[in-house]
């Protein structure tokens, strides 16, 4: 016993508060509990504080805990800026077809953005959210999961759907809200959803997906499935985020809380959103294991998500991943962001890697770019021409029992529709008028 306590004491002296304290403390308490007679004396010697909810030591020196008291959580990466694997032990050694699928999905995503963003600016669709700069976060995480894992997204995760097999036509049809849109035109553009692909339909109010994701993870305890909940660092300021973190931790839910930290909540920069060491630092304070990852590095995101999933399933516990990535906003970029768009652009990083592995070259690039643009344009042209859903759809599938105020509106519509048969035909409405 003496030897053990001595060892603990030594460890406690050069403790790294966040990294090792929990483990040492638990170890000490476990040992002390089994040796009741020595316990009181030992507590004093170790200065351990036993109180429900507290895992710490006593101190007789008054002292603030400041940002400087902690080492910031480091960012895990696999690739350097030239696409070289830095530590061979961390290379996920993915087969050629998977790496090429990753690259194609990431660059496709980028082309989808260019066309749909332009179309929104031209007024052809009412709304759009780009994914530029976040390609590695989507594809790296999606590749580490399987289609049975349930996704709760925010709105900027369409790469996950593309990876799972959502077609370009389904994507464009959703943005146009036409008659083939799965959501039958009842949602804003980019509010995708697919029951078949286990992707819960996006809802506009930020963070509502977070407690919902934790709740559905609760039902998946002791299965081989996990829930992955994507959210932005801006969304993490909502009260719902706290509810989600705390329930995930206290109820031991197999959920991966995936915070895409891109430095902005639309136009609100980080410095106006939070102080401290980011969202990652919140994880341990809720009792959630946390990884901070380079969101521009698809292999780092892949490894982190894979590990998180394994942990969540094995331990039935939540895990938090925080990839940091750049995002390009339409306004002038501050220099600290601009440098990321050139040096660390995720698609380029992966391209350097596949070129070095001899899997890609300029000819393949040109051929793929041409094909992917054509595929998107074909889907886009077809989607734009399709009729809008019949107006009656707006009253379906939302309420089991339609409330009286909505019934009243439905009645108005029933009376109004016959006055404009072209606009409200039985087939659906015409895109240029509807
Ligand atoms: C409850 C709520 N408040 C405000 C908004 C408006 N809004 C939409 S996106 C957004 C910024 C979200 O930022 P972040 O979570 O960082 O996601 P990002 O856009 O950077 O991916 C805001 C404030 C909203 N949709 N819901
Ligand atoms: Mg953000």
TrEMBL record:
InterPro entries in the cross-refs: Alpha-ketoacid_DH_E1_comp, DH_E1, THDP-binding
Keyword Transit peptide on entry: yes
Dehydrogenase E1 component domain residues: 103-390
Cofactor(s) the protein requires to work: thiamine diphosphate
The organism's place on the tree of life at top rank: Eukaryota
Transmembrane segments: none
Function: The branched-chain alpha-keto dehydrogenase complex catalyzes the overall conversion of alpha-keto acids to acyl-CoA and CO(2). It contains multiple copies of three enzymatic components: branched-chain alpha-keto acid decarboxylase (E1), lipoamide acyltransferase (E2) and lipoamide dehydrogenase (E3).
Protein name (database record): 2-oxoisovalerate dehydrogenase subunit alpha
